[in-house]
């Protein structure tokens, strides 16, 4: 299983927006520059985050972005779901997939358990958790330099 680029970059963009404490938010060009993401590709990511209700513009178009709720209330699953319909490690456990071995396959139980563990991990980790870890890593890096 591999998470798509929009999800990965979306998480990085959300980190930049979450760490911005200015009431004017952060501009897309600044996110692109700090995270080394093309502005054009970031357009798609920002759009997905806005549609999911995770971010908004401070004062309409051409203004900075802010979170729509505190970082401690936004889970990594929320960010993933802005770009993916959910998490599914293997086709046979997808909601719309019908397998003829469904009732006699112990492997399906294994995959379902693994999938549930990943979903629960994404649910239990917040944007605030990652932001605190990021700040800690940056402080350690400064001390070592």
Short description:
With 145 residues, this protein is mainly α. Helix content is 54%, strand content 4%. It has a single domain (5-144), classed as Winged helix-like DNA-binding domain superfamily/Winged helix DNA-binding domain (Arc Repressor Mutant, subunit A, Orthogonal Bundle).
Task: Describe how the helices and strands are arranged.
Layout: H1 5-19, H2 28-35, H3 39-51, E1 55-57, E2 65-67, H4 76-81, H5 106-124, H6 127-144
Antiparallel strand pairs: 1-2
Fold and architecture overview:
- The protein has 145 residues and is mainly alpha-helical.
- Helix content is 54%, strand content 4%.
- The longest helix has 19 residues, at 106-124.
- It has one domain: Arc Repressor Mutant, subunit A (Orthogonal Bundle).
Please tag this protein with its features:
single chain, 145 residues, mainly alpha, Arc Repressor Mutant, subunit A, two-stranded antiparallel sheet, 4% strand
The unreliable regions are: none
Average pLDDT taken over every residue: 92
With helices defined by DSSP (H or I, 4 residues minimum), what is the helix count? 6
Run of helices and strands: HHHEEHHH
Main β-sheet, spatial strand arrangement: 1-2
The CATH H-level homologous superfamily: Winged helix-like DNA-binding domain superfamily/Winged helix DNA-binding domain
């Amino acid at each position: 299983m591999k998470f798509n680029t929009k999800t990965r970059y979306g998480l990085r963009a959300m980190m930049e927006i979450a760490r911005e404490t200015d009431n004017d938010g952060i501009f897309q060009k600044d996110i692109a520059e700090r995270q080394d993401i093309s502005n054009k590709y970031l357009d798609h990511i920002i759009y997905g985050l806005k549609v999911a209700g995770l971010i908004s513009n401070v004062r309409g178009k051409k203004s900075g972005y802010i979170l729509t709720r505190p970082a401690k209330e936004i889970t990594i699953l929320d960010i993933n779901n802005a770009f993916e319909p959910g998490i599914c490690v293997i086709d046979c456990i997808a909601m719309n997939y019908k397998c003829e071995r469904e009732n006699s396959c112990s492997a399906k139980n294994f995959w379902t358990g693994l999938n549930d563990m990943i979903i629960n991990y994404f649910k239990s980790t917040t944007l605030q958790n990652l932001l605190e870890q990021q700040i800690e890593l940056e402080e350690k890096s400064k001390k070592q330099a």
